[in-house]
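Need tokens for this chain, all 99 residues.
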Amino acid sequence: MNKSELIEALAEKVNLPVRETASVTKTIIDTMSEALVRGDSIEIRGFGSFTVKKYGSYTGRNPKSGEQINVAPKKLPFFKVGKDLRERVDEAMQEKDDK
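Here are the structure tokens for all 99 residues:
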């Protein structure tokens, strides 16, 4: 599912115009992004949590040339799935595999 599909599904589910739903979706995503940029974490019970993880520098390899390169330290968003979502996905995939 991409952002457009999410907006359409949400608009249909809550019976709102797509334009309004797009605005609400954009606001939510922007607000979450701003929180992560500030270094805050986001927890949505039953779904999961978003945090910013710090990664140290390391020596990597250029996959084409094999040359060693230094990779700078960085901070990246990280998602940890919540228990409820993890169980729902696992059950659904098990049922799918059983068919």
